[in-house]
């Protein structure tokens, strides 16, 4: 479901952007100087400024940037849950008049794309790969504030804490793992403040939703590969059988009624399942886990299920380096 623009939009349609930027600057300068502003900032901005001032950041100049080395950025990219969709997201910025960045869940910028001229301006700002773009690092900004508010954030001009960021707008949207709901990172579109268009926010949100759909498809493909790799197990099973991935998502179930996901198995730790009392996972050849197959392991563990049928209590475990 798309977020209504009014829920987080920094600018109403038809607003004179130049005049609005001047008005926001007066509010910014008054509030941060401890004077009475012409009017209060938006509640989201007011909350963020309060947090940032409490952290002791200096509103008078750009705070220190300390980007990660390129090697560390590459390592974080490889480990990122957004790696499978990053290239498709960044294509949105091809031939565009804005920058797109993708961060990790901690606000570190991992990818950036956009026009060369804007990338150069962003470099001066310290807005590049490896930089931490949290409120604690650079003050009120859409990425850092979206992380704190756990919601999409759009900021315009002097709503940013640092004066160096006043020449920009930014629209940030969290991306979540569709399997677990965990935060994977932030997608942000930024550009010159006076070029902000109402459609920008919708563009970012739509891109994020499509990315989450694509991540779910990657998940479904992994389950299908697991299902195929364990076809020999399913074909020879006698009795109830469960085949699940490392996170407990069910690739195959026979002889037992389960939901799409069960508790994630852990090698060497007994797990309870609906059709039997306990399962003790062991290693197997393919990524995934298998429930009792009706044959006795070397050290059998047997018990009676609620259905009064006797099953071997063992499971197959995930190999090292299994895809997530």
The largest sheet has its strands arranged as: 2-1-5-4-3
Distance between the termini: 26 Å
Largest sheet data: 5 strands, antiparallel
**Number of DSSP strand runs:** 14
Class per helix and strand makeup: alpha+beta
Low-confidence stretches: 1-6, 275-290, 293-324
Shape: elongated
Count the DSSP helices.
9
- The amount of beta strand, in percent, is 15-25%
Any idea what the radius of gyration is?
A: 25 Å
Element order: H for helix, E for strand: HHHHEEHHHEEEHHEEEEEEEEE
Mean pLDDT: 80
**Helicity range:** 25-40%
Can you put this structure into words, describing what you see?
The protein has 324 residues and is of the alpha+beta class. Helices cover 33% and strands 19% of the residues. The chain contains nine helices and 14 strands. The chain has helices spanning 17-33, 43-55, 70-79, 83-90, 116-125, 135-138, 142-149, 199-229, 231-236; strands spanning 99-103, 109-113, 153-156, 168-176, 183-192, 241-244, 250-254, 271-273, 276-279, 281-283, 289-290, 302-304, 310-312, 315-317. The chain has a five-stranded antiparallel β-sheet with strand order 2-1-5-4-3, with helices on both faces. A three-stranded antiparallel β-sheet has the order 7-6-11, with helices on one face. α4 packs antiparallel against α8 (199-229). The longest helix has 31 residues, at 199-229. The radius of gyration is 25 Å and the shape is elongated. The two termini are 26 Å apart. 40% of the residues are buried. Residues 1-6, 275-290 and 293-324 have low confidence and may be disordered.
């Amino acid at each position: 479901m798309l977020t209504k623009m009014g829920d987080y939009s920094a600018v109403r349609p038809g607003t004179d952007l130049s005049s609005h930027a001047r008005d926001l600057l007066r509010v910014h300068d008054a509030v941060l100087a401890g004077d009475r502003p012409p009017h209060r900032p938006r509640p989201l901005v007011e909350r963020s400024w309060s947090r940032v001032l409490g952290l002791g950041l200096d509103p008078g100049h750009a705070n220190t940037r300390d980007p990660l080395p390129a090697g560390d950025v590459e390592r974080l990219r490889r480990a990122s849950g957004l790696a499978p969709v990053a290239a498709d997201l960044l294509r949105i910025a091809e031939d565009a008049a804005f920058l797109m960045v993708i961060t990790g869940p901690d606000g570190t910028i991992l990818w950036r794309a956009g026009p060369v001229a804007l990338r150069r301006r962003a470099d001066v700002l310290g807005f590049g790969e490896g930089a931490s773009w949290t409120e604690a690092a650079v003050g009120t900004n859409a990425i850092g504030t979206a992380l704190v508010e756990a919601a999409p954030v759009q900021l315009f001009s002097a709503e940013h804490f640092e004066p160096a960021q006043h020449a920009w707008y930014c629209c940030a949207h969290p991306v979540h793992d569709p399997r677990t709901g965990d935060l994977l990172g932030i997608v942000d579109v930024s550009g010159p403040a006076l070029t902000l268009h109402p459609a920008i926010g919708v563009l970012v949100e739509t891109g994020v939703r499509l990315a989450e759909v694509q991540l779910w498809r990657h998940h479904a493909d992994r389950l299908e590969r697991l299902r195929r790799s364990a076809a020999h197990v399913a074909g020879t099973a006698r009795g109830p059988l469960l085949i699940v991935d490392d996170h407990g998502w069910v690739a195959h179930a026979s002889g037992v009624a389960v939901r799409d996901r069960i508790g994630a198995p852990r090698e060497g730790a007994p797990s309870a399942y609906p059709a039997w009392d306990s399962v003790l996972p062991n290693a197997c050849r393919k990524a995934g886990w298998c429930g009792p197959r009706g044959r006795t392991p070397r050290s059998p563990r047997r018990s009676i299920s609620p259905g009064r049928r006797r099953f071997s209590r063992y499971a197959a475990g995930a190999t090292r380096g299994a895809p997530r």
